[in-house]
Structure formats: C-alpha cells, structure tokens
Amino acid sequence: MSDWIREQFILEWPNVWADQHWLVPAWLLGGALFLLIVWAYRTIAAPLWLKLSCAALKTLAIALLAMILVEPMRSESKPVPGANLFAILADRSQSLQVSDRGQSKTRADLLKARLDRSEAWQVRLGQEFDVRRYEFDDQLAPVADFQEFAAAGESSSMVSSLSAVADRYAERPIAGILLFTDGNATDLSEANIDWSQFPPIFPVILGAEQTANDIGVRRVTASQTNFEAAPVTLTAEIEGAGFAGKSVEVELLDDKGERLQTQTVSDIRDDQIFSVRFQVKPTQRGVLFYQVRAFAKSETGLFEDTGKSSEATLLNNNRMVVVDRGQGPYKVLYVSGRPNWEFKFLNRALAGDDEIKLDALVRIAKREPKFQFRDKDSNANRIFTNSDDEQKEQVEQYDEAVLLRVGKLEQGELTGGFPKSPDELFEYHALILDDLEADFFTQDQKSLVQDFVSLRGGGFLMLGGIESFSEGGYHRTPIGELLPIYLTAVAKPPQQAEFALEMTREGLLEPWVRVRATEQEEAQRLEEMPRLRSLNAVGALKPGATQLLTAPLEQGETRPVLVTQRFGKGRTAAMLMGDLWRWKLHQKSPDNEDLEKAWRQTVRWLVGDVPQRVKVEAVRQQADPSRPIEIAVEVNDENFKPLDNASVTIEVSTPDGETLTLTAAAKDAVSGQYAANYVPRTPGAYRALVTARNPDGSEIQQTATGWVSEPAGEEFLTLKPNRDFLETIAQQSGGEVVDLADLDNFVRTLSERDIPIVEPKVHAVWHTWAVFLLAVGLLVSEWGIRRWKGLA
After folding, report:
1. Is residue 635, in this structure, part of any structural domain at all?
2. Which of 93, 338, 369, 730 has most Cβ atoms within 10 angstroms of its Cβ?
3. Positive or negative, the Cα torsion across 90, 95, 101, 104?
4. Is there a single domain that holds both residue 730 and residue 687?
C-alpha cells in the first residue's frame, strides 16, 4: 500500500521539458495572471492575511497549469529486467542455532522465515534481477531456494565464499551481494583484504548485542620455560555473559579426561575476558594434549547432564591445547682439563634429569711434546709409570693426553678422545669446556667446534679457570671467535681476594638465570652466597652480547661473570668464574639445592633451541579450521646440511583411533624441505609420527608432532555478531548494512543505486490525474476560503 501511495501521490521533480517552445508563452501567461490576481485582491476589503492566503493558493494553481504547457517529464535509469545479477548468500553455520536474550526463536529460525521465496522482497528482486542463491559454511554451495536451509555447518568460511562469488562473476554485470550472517567468520586472516574490488556487499546482521547466557573458553595457549623441571604454563582466556557476580569453575584435564587441577574465579563481569593459569609438570616426553573447560559453579555437572545448563551452547565451554615436550634426552658433552669439584656438582645436578644425558671427557694427565729426548724405553704416558698397564699397547702414549670417559657411554664411544668429525660431534646438543687450554685441540677440531655452533646450531659454554679464555690461549682461534667477549686488551686481574655476584637487569629477565621466585628472594640468595675467588680477566663485550651476571669491585667497577650471545644457528655463553663449586661447599644449609637447580636450568638453556636432524611442524594453511593441515618436514644429513632425495612417511593417528599413512613430497623445490597435507574430519587431538630415511633406506630419525581440530570452538568463539567487520566490508565495497526487517524497502530502492546495465525510462509528470487534482484542489481551496469569509 505504501509503495502505491508513493507512486500515485508523490510528485517527482521533473528533469525534462518536452515542449520548450511553450516556455516563453507560459511565462507570459503566468506573469499576466499573477499581476491580475495581485490587482484583484488589492481592491478587496479584507484582512491582509486572508488576501495573502487566497492569492497564494490561486498563484500556485496558475503556476502549476502554466508549467503543464511545457510538458514536464521525468527521465530515469532503470535496471533492465534480468540483465543484472544479484547474489544472495546465507550463512548456514551452527553459530546461528543460538537464541538471543528475550527471543524464543533461534537466529536460524528467524532467517529461514525471511528466506522464503514467496516473501515480497524476493518476488520483487526476482522481477528486476537474475538472482543467484548460495549457502555457505566451510564451502560455498549454490541452491535453487532456501527450503532446506539448516544451520548445521561447523565453520563459517565467509571471506572465501565472498571471494568465490566475486571471482565467479568478475566478468559479468553483478549489482550486489546480499549477505545474511552474524559476521563471525572462521577464515579471517591477518592479511588486509581490498574490499573495494568486490561488488557492493549488503550485510544483513543476524543476532543482537544482548546474547543469551554463555561461558566460553576463547583460547588456550601453552608456554615452556627453563625453570626447574621445565613446567608448562597453560593460560586460558574465558569470557562470560549473563553470569555477572557469579563464580566460574575452570578445570584442567589431560588427554584421557582425568581432572588435574581446578580453579575458581569469583565475581566475574559480563563481556569481560579474564585469564586463568595452570602450571603442570608432565612426566612424559613427546606430544601431549590438555583440555581446559569452564562452567558456572552453580551448574556443576552440566557436561554429564546438559539439562542443568542455562547457557546458549556448551560447544564453546572447552578448548584443547597441544604441548610438545621434545624428543629428548638431549646429549651434552663436557670436556675438562683436570678433575675438579665443578664437574662433580654438575654431574650430580643432571643425574636427576632424565631429559639430559651427560657424557664427559676428564683429562687426568697431559701429553708431552712429541719430539724430545727420553730417558726410558716405555712410550706410555707418565701416569702409567711403574704400573701394570705401562707396557700395554692400548694405553695412551707419552704424546697423548689421558682422558677419563664418564657417563653411560656405548662401547667404542669417545674412545678416540674429543670428536674429530662432524658425525661424531654433531650427535650432541651442547658442548661445555672447563679449564682446558686451546692447544688441547687440533686446528681441525677447533674449526669443528665452531661449525658445531654456527652450522649445527648447538649450545656452547666455556667455564672459567686457569687455562680458559685468554689464559688458555684462545685468542685468534675459531673457538675464541665463538665467545661473546673479546680476548684482546684484557683488563688487569682484580686485586681483591673475594667477589660477590650481582644480577643485571637483563639477567633478571632471563628465567634460566633466576633461581628464586621473586626479585627480593633472588637478591637475598646472592647476598647469602659464599664469595668467589677465581675470576678470569677478559676484554670488552662483543656487539650483540648480553651481560647477565657481574662482579662488583671495590673501586666501583664491575667485571663480567656470565655473558651470552647468538652465533650462527646456535648460542654461546662465557661463565668467567672458576670456582662456582664454592656455592655448594660453603653454604649454610646442606639441603639447599640452589646450585643444582642453577646447573639444570643453564644446561636446559643450552639445549633448548638446538635443532634436530628431522624437524617437523604442523601448520594450518589458512585461519579457517576446515582448511588442510600442512605437515612440513625439514631433513638434514649428518653434517646438518639439507638432505635431498630423503624418504619421509607420516603416520597420522585420528581421535577415532584410526591410523593412516601419508607420504611427504618435496616442498616448493627447496632442498631438504618436504610436506604433506591432511584435512581433519573429526574434532579432537591428532598425532603424527614422522619417519625420515636416507636414500639408501636407513632410518635417520623419528619425530612427532600434533595439532587440535576444534571447529566448534572457533565457530562459537563469540556469540555477539561482528558488526564492526560487516560495517567495514559494506562501506569499503560500496554497500550498506541492511536490517532483516527492512528488506522490502531495501529491494525497492535498489533501482536507485548504481546498477551495471540500465535502460532509460521517461514518463510524463503533467500527464497524471494527480497533477490536475492538485491544481483543482488549490483553486477549490481558494474559492472555499472566500466563501467562508463572505468574499465571493
């Protein structure tokens, strides 16, 4: 009815004058009649307001009739029926199954009623445009109508669906896209999308800001540190609506569903995110999964009995996270120039850590010069003098150092002393040198140590002593180049007998350097530590080096004690004190384990980022949870150079207990890079065991990875419609946001917008009964007023 009234009674301003040769006569006739009206009313004895009113009514009527002589017409551009495309996209993801506060129907029910093809807006849209209808969840699907519409999809690939429609009709005239959605797309990425290249998008926002009651776990992140026993910190971000002032229970479960920890958060606020942190100490290595779930404390047991729940949905009340505990144990090689207390406490500290395997070479006798006069027939090292082993062929000769092999070594391992080839040394993840001069190594071994750090990515630590750093002759050697301090322009040795330790600001920020929980406790620990007496003098710090511990001197100066630096793919550290063992021997309490803890954390830092020969990472190719997982594998040879022609197989274990085998192919023609794609079909935790083999079929290494598929968690990340995002794409594409109840008016005004294919349409404004009715109405009104006042 409103459209009929508008078309019949609202006069549009003319923009075309058909008979312009009548323009001058019309002006003359109108002007003459106006003057006659003015003259006539001047002679009438009546109030001024009455004469002005009557004159105005008659003047308007005369002007309207004079304008008709010129034949005013209206020229418009109307879309050619059926020549332009118009797309309708309906979101069928399960996030539309929720009901908003105060609504008895779900968003999907309200949408389906408006998508009925018999609706007036759809009828009119079909009369003017070639309408194409689509539904989308994880994929875009064309439909003839929306009779079978059901919000059951596990994701909402809105961006990719819009892109697909825009690409499909890029070469065809498309007037716009009507998008029905709540705006919570699961395929949003950080990349900026140029929406101006899209057809005009008209989002119809489904859902209200005031959602129904809900508690949702938005995300869970895991982080590992070098603290004692390497605890894992799990942080969960939780948001509630409709539970303001109430308490929320947050539980941590393992992959078997057993409850590990529980925390209660009191007096939460609506629509405000709060965080809950858990710390766990896993007892297993490899890939582990944890689950965090949250619920109102007043609704305990709702997961077993969903009838207790007052929430809009329970699909977002839990989230899983994967934790990779690595593929230990990590191997550390310790080489010392003499038996000492330092090795005793280091070995004791690492004995209780099953993730660290310590092998040691402890020199118990030095070698003698090879060419010198000897006063005896035996060629054995002097340590064997007058012993039963002196004449044995397998004992070290006089020009060889005698090394004691310590650790759980296999037969033949390290029997030749310090490794002489990359395949021997590169098996280790970290190397520690303690009070050992540079001449102990051959030139090739010195270069090998440098390659161990720069190419293999190993960790390197040199401890202080009388034969370390400058005193050990490491200046101008490949090992000296590794160190984070210069060995030239060495400062004079300090004269004071004892030194205290002081932690720098950078040291306080490094978890592996700290031993106590708070800064105050750390300061107290340093104050109570026994004073040290051995400190190597070195030059300045190298660019990029970080000083973590210092020794304050009496003159107000400081000397570096612990310095670290990145070198190539690895990391190096210089611990310039040579008697850290005093910390244990002279402490007040024999039960104090600070030194052991410090050693474990230091070694964990050394091996923390050391790469394996086979490195694997599971990455989702796009933000959409329905997209494939790319299992990327990097394979190196024994020298840690990219290995081509390797054979890589991947065994994927699904949440259903099934196992399938994939074969990774070369990736992007990059040497040593392999990849395979996998599309998770079932929500839950996935494990993948990667086996890499040499071209000859021999196994290189097995490593594991894992990922979590939670489409419902991403879909119900928030129940509020993403109005800001929809308004942005509407504005940038040239469209506008449309209200669900205002579709009829929107379709009616579509023809007034910029349409690709239009045709001119001209209609006479004067040749309508409404114009004549208006003119007659003005004259009758003027006559009626005169009759009313007795002027006729």
Report:
1. yes
2. 93
3. positive
4. no
